[in-house]
Design a protein that fits this description.
2 domains; 15 helices; 42% helix; 339 residues
Amino acid sequence: MLRSIDRALAALVLAFALLVAGGVHAQPLKVRISWVTTPAHLPPLFMERPELMTRAGQSYTVEAVRLPGMAQTVAALAAGELDIALLTFPMLPLAAHGAKLDDLRIIASEYLDGEDGHYSAEFLTLKDSALHKPEDIKGKKIALPMRGGSDEMALRAVARKLGLDEKRDYTIVEAAPQELKAMLLDGRADVVAIGQPGMSADPTVHDAARPLFTQRDALGPTAQVVWVARASFLERNRAALVDFMADALRMRRFLTDPKNHAQAVDIVARATKWPREKIDSWLFTKADFYRTPDGLPELSMLQQNIKQVVDLGLAKSGLDVRKYQDFSLAKDAGERLKQ
């Protein structure tokens, strides 16, 4: 009897020791992941189909954190208020150098702009305007949703090819994304940068406006938005993060599979409170951004995009993306989904 009690006590002591040694693994890992706008950013949609997030509540939980823009996203990551950040490629040098995130790691792709046959951000003008080619922007007012982003990069690239200078030849004004439509329609801007397919598909915009050029015209395809995290966070929580990445990839593939289009429209309509007819024609189709099925960025494309950031004067120095990447989680997650 005493030996049985001793064995039971020893087992309890061992279990407690393993629990203590496991530390953060005793409870599901909380993954705080950023987003700015959806459905371009998928994190707010992950838990809309909980049966696809098979390890949620077991090895991890996910919190989609809404932030107003990319600068705030970098600040939140630097302050430890985020675990995974969705960043546009022009923000990577700022995050790595400006915010001194030396251990920044690019871990996955969110979407590409201008991939062959897919949507690219547009610079729109009114159909009855006198602007018909990019050089017609001389002397005009152009509205952008933010300075320092890919919109400004595309505009600078076009202007450089044409020998145009902002201070001398055209004017940039910043406006909230929701204000751009009104600015174009009521003539407060001659051209507006529209970075989301849903806005250009809006009937009132589609019927009144036409594209003058696209981001692809100016920059070629871009690895537009990527997932980044701190190396220390990845190292401490690898097993749970592979679980999360596998579930996120499963949800991504479900949403982008054409046979699930009606269900995907329902999910996004429910999450955004938009009418189905506002999104049905373009959501997760070739009229939308392109998403790689394996969730991996194209390194050569991303490196070229970073070089463009520096060449166009939006960052003082670039970065070697090979030294800032850790695709092992996404690769392991992809292998798991093959099983």
